[in-house]
C-alpha cells in the first residue's frame, strides 16, 4: 500500500464532515424542473401505495375469502391484472422522469461549472490543477447523476414502503409490531454509527480520484519531456502511488460498507425470524389466522428490505453530498478579478495606454514585487519595446494590461479609463496577443487562424495568412488550409507556429498589439519571415513588444528597459547604448540576432 501521508490530497482548510444536507446545494439546479419532479413523485406514491396493498390480497387468498364462487375468483384476478398494469406503468413513468431529470440537471451543472471556470483569472488556476477541474466536471457530476437519476427516488420509495409497511403492520397485529419495534433500533443505530465513518472515507476517496486525474493530466501533457529525461519510471511510480492511495481508501470504504451490510441484514432478518416464531405460536393457538400471519410476514420483510436498501442508498447520498459540496465550492468561488456591475464603455478611436505608479505582487509570491512603481504612457500608433533580463517583469506588464490580475497599487488605463471600470471582455477586444508560446488548437490551419475573429471569411483568413508570411507553407500542407494541425500543432515548426499566431492576431484587427517575442532563435529565413509578419502587424497600430531580438528593438520608437520590476531607462537604441548601462550590456549579450549591437 502506498504511503498515504506523502501525497495525500485534499489536505486543505475545507471541512471534512460531509452531511447529506449538502445536497441542498443542488436546489437551484432542480428548481427549473419542478414539473418533472412532481410527475415522478406522483408515480412514486402510486406504485408504493399499490405494492403496499398486495400483501392484503395475499392474505385473502390464503384464508380463502371470496373464493367460493368462480366469478368472484375471476374478478379478483382481473383486479390483480389491473394492479400489475398500474405498477408497471407507474414504475416506467417514474424511471423516465427521474432519469431524465438527473441527466438534464447534470448537463446544466456541467455547463455551469465550465462557464464559471472559463471566466476565472490565472490566480484561481494556480490553486487548481486542470486534471482536478476535469475530474470534478466528470466524476463528481456522475455521482450526482446517480443520485438524482436513481438514488433519491429509490430512497423515497423505500421510505414510503417503510412508513406504510409499519402502519399496516400495526393494523395487522399490534403485539407482533411491538416486537418488531424492539428490533428496529438495533438496526438503525449501527446504520448511523457506520454511516458517519463511511461519509468521511467517501470524501477522501473522491479526493484521491481527483489527485490521480491531476497527476495523469500533467504527465500526459508533458509526455515528451518525461520521456526525454527518461523519467517514465518515476512518473509511473507517482501515478501508481496516487492510484494505490485511491485503492486503499476505496478499500476502507468497501470494508465499512460490507460490515454495515452484514450488521443491518443480519439484525433485520434475525428480528423477522424471531417475530415469526412467536406468530406461529399465535396461529397454532387460534389468536390469528394463517393469512394474517402471512400478511404480517410479507409486510415485515418489506419493511426490513426497505431499511436495508435505505442504508445502502444512504451511503450513495453521502458520496453525492461530498461531490455536491465540491461543485458548489467551485461555483461559489470568488475570483480576485471581477467585472464592475455596470461597465463604462471602452472609448472609440486611438487608445492611449497608461501605467501610473503600478506596484504588483503575484498572490503566490507576496514578498517579491513583480512590478514596482511602474509609470509609463504609450501613445496610439507607437511601437514600444520592453527589454530586460529574465524575470524583470516584462510579461507581467502584459498580464496586468489584459487585467488577468489587478495591481496592488496604482492605476492602469486604456483610452484614459481605468481598466477596472470596464468589462474585461469589452476592452480585451482592443488587444491582439501573440504569446511567446504560440498555442495551436487541434483543428485545421484555417480554424486556428480564424480563432482571431470567428466571423472572418475564408478570403480574410487567407489575407491575414499572407500578411503573416504563412500562406505559402500552409498551402504546401497536405490539405492546405484544411489540414488538421494536430494537438498543440505538432505538425508545425516553431517559426511556422509563430506565423500562424501572428496571422491570428492580424485577423483580429485590434488597435493594440501585444507581442511576446519567442526567446528561441529561429534560422535566418524564418527570422526574416516572422519579422516581415510583425511589420505587417504593426502597420497603423500600437505595438507593445517584449523584445528578445535586436532587429525588433532597433525598429521601436521607444525602448523601455526593465530590471527587477522597475523601469530603469527609456529611450531609443542609440541613446541607450550611449548611456552604457544595463541596456548596452543586454544588447551585447542577450539579443538573439547574433550580430554585434554597438
Ligand atoms: N504566476 C506567477 N506567480 C508568481 N510569480 C510569478 C508569476 N509569474 C511571474 N512571476 C514572477 O514575477 C517576476 C516577473 O516575471 P515576468 O514573467 O514578468 O518576467 P519577464 O521579464 O517576462 O521574464 P522572461 O523574459 O524570462 O519572460 C519574476 O520574478 C517571476 O518569477
UniProtKB/TrEMBL annotation:
Residues spanning the membrane: 33-56, 76-97, 143-170, 176-195, 259-280, 292-310
UniProt KW keywords: ATP-binding, Membrane, Nucleotide-binding, Transmembrane, Transmembrane helix
Keyword ATP-binding among UniProt keywords: yes
Domain ABC transporter: start-end pairs: 353-589
PROSITE patterns: ABC_TM1F, ABC_TRANSPORTER_1, ABC_TRANSPORTER_2
SUPFAM superfamilies in alphabetical order: ABC transporter transmembrane region, P-loop containing nucleoside triphosphate hydrolases
Entry's Gene Ontology molecular function annotations: ABC-type oligopeptide transporter activity; ATP binding; ATP hydrolysis activity
Coiled coil regions in record: none
Pfam families assigned: ABC_membrane (PF00664), ABC_tran (PF00005)
Subcellular location: Cell membrane
Keyword Ribonucleoprotein carried by entry: no
Residue ranges annotated for the ABC transmembrane type-1 domain, each copy included: 38-319
An example Gene Ontology CC term for this record: plasma membrane
Single Gene Ontology BP annotation: oligopeptide export from mitochondrion
InterPro entries named in the record: AAA+_ATPase (IPR003593), ABC1_TM_dom (IPR011527), ABC1_TM_sf (IPR036640), ABC_MsbA_ATP-bd (IPR011918), ABC_transporter-like_ATP-bd (IPR003439), ABC_transporter-like_CS (IPR017871), P-loop_NTPase (IPR027417), Type_1_exporter (IPR039421)
Topology within the bilayer: Multi-pass membrane protein
Function statement: Part of an ABC transporter complex. Transmembrane domains (TMD) form a pore in the inner membrane and the ATP-binding domain (NBD) is responsible for energy generation.
Alphabetical list of PANTHER family matching this protein: ATP-BINDING CASSETTE SUB-FAMILY B MEMBER 10, MITOCHONDRIAL, ATP-DEPENDENT PERMEASE MDL1, MITOCHONDRIAL
UniProt name for this protein: ATP-binding cassette domain-containing protein
Source species of the chain: Stagnihabitans tardus
Amino acid at each position: 500500500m502506498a504511503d498515504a501521508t506523502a501525497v495525500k490530497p485534499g489536505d486543505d482548510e475545507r471541512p471534512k464532515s460531509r452531511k447529506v444536507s449538502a445536497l441542498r446545494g443542488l436546489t437551484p439546479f432542480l428548481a427549473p424542473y419542478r414539473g418533472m419532479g412532481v410527475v415522478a413523485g406522483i408515480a412514486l406514491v402510486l406504485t408504493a401505495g399499490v405494492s403496499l396493498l398486495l400483501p392484503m390480497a395475499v392474505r385473502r387468498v390464503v384464508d380463502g375469502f371470496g373464493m367460493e364462487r368462480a366469478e368472484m375468483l375471476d374478478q379478483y384476478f382481473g383486479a390483480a391484472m389491473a394492479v400489475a398494469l398500474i405498477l408497471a406503468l407507474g414504475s416506467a413513468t417514474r424511471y423516465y422522469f427521474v432519469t431524465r431529470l438527473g441527466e438534464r440537471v447534470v448537463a446544466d451543472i456541467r455547463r455551469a461549472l465550465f462557464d464559471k471556470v472559463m471566466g476565472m483569472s490565472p490566480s484561481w488556476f494556480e490553486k487548481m490543477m486542470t486534471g482536478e477541474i476535469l475530474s470534478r466536471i466528470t466524476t463528481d457530476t456522475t455521482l450526482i447523476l446517480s443520485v438524482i437519476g436513481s438514488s433519491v427516488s429509490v430512497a423515497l420509495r423505500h421510505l414510503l414502503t417503510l412508513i406504510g409497511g409499519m402502519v399496516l403492520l400495526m393494523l395487522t397485529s399490534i403485539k407482533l409490531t411491538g416486537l418488531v419495534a424492539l428490533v428496529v433500533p438495533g438496526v438503525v443505530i449501527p446504520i448511523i454509527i457506520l454511516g458517519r465513518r463511511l461519509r468521511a472515507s467517501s470524501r477522501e476517496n473522491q479526493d484521491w480520484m481527483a489527485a490521480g486525474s491531476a497527476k495523469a493530466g500533467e504527465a500526459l501533457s508533458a509526455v515528451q519531456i518525461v520521456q526525454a529525461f527518461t523519467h517514465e519510471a518515476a512518473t509511473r511510480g507517482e501515478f501508481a502511488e496516487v492510484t494505490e492511495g485511491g485503492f486503499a481508501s476505496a478499500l476502507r470504504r468497501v470494508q465499512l460498507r460490507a460490515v454495515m451490510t452484514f450488521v443491518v441484514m443480519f439484525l433485520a432478518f434475525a428480528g423477522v425470524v424471531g417475530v415469526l416464531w412467536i406468530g406461529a405460536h399465535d396461529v397454532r393457538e387460534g389468536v390469528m389466522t394463517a393469512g394474517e400471519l402471512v400478511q404480517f410476514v410479507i409486510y415485515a420483510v418489506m419493511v426490513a428490505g426497505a431499511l436495508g436498501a435505505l442504508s445502502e442508498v444512504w451511503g450513495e447520498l453521502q458520496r453525492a453530498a461530498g461531490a455536491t459540496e465540491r461543485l458548489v465550492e467551485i461555483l461559489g468561488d470568488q475570483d480576485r478579478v471581477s467585472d464592475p456591475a455596470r461597465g463604462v464603455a471602452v472609448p472609440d478611436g486611438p487608445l492611449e495606454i497608461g501605467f501610473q505608479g503600478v506596484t504588483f505582487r503575484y498572490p503566490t509570491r507576496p514578498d517579491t514585487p513583480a512590478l514596482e512603481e511602474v509609470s509609463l504612457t504609450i501613445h496610439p500608433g507607437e511601437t514600444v519595446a520592453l527589454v530586460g533580463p529574465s524575470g524583470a517583469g516584462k510579461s507581467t506588464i502584459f498580464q496586468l494590461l489584459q487585467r488577468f490580475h489587478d495591481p496592488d497599487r496604482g492605476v492602469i488605463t486604456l483610452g484614459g479609463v481605468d481598466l477596472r471600470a470596464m468589462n474585461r471582455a469589452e476592452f480585451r477586444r482592443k488587444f491582439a496577443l501573440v504569446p511567446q508560446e504560440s498555442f495551436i488548437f487541434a483543428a485545421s490551419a484555417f480554424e486556428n487562424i480564424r480563432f482571431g475573429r470567428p466571423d472572418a471569411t475564408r478570403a480574410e483568413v487567407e489575407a491575414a495568412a499572407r500578411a503573416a508570411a504563412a500562406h505559402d507553407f500552409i498551402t504546401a500542407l497536405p490539405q492546405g488550409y484544411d489540414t488538421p494541425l494536430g494537438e498543440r500543432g505538432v505538425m508545425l515548426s516553431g517559426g511556422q507556429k509563430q506565423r500562424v499566431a501572428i496571422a491570428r492576431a492580424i485577423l483580429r484587427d485590434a488597435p493594440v498589439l501585444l507581442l511576446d517575442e519567442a526567446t528561441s532563435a529561429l534560422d535566418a529565413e524564418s527570422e526574416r519571415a516572422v519579422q516581415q509578419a510583425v511589420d505587417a502587424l504593426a502597420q497603423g497600430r500600437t505595438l507593445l513588444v517584449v523584445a528578445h531580438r535586436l532587429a525588433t528593438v532597433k525598429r521601436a520608437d521607444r525602448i523601455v528597459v526593465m530590471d527587477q520590476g522597475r523601469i530603469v531607462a527609456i529611450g531609443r537604441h542609440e541613446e541607450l547604448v550611449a548611456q552604457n548601462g544595463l541596456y548596452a550590456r543586454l544588447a551585447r549579450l542577450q539579443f538573439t540576432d547574433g550580430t554585434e549591437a554597438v
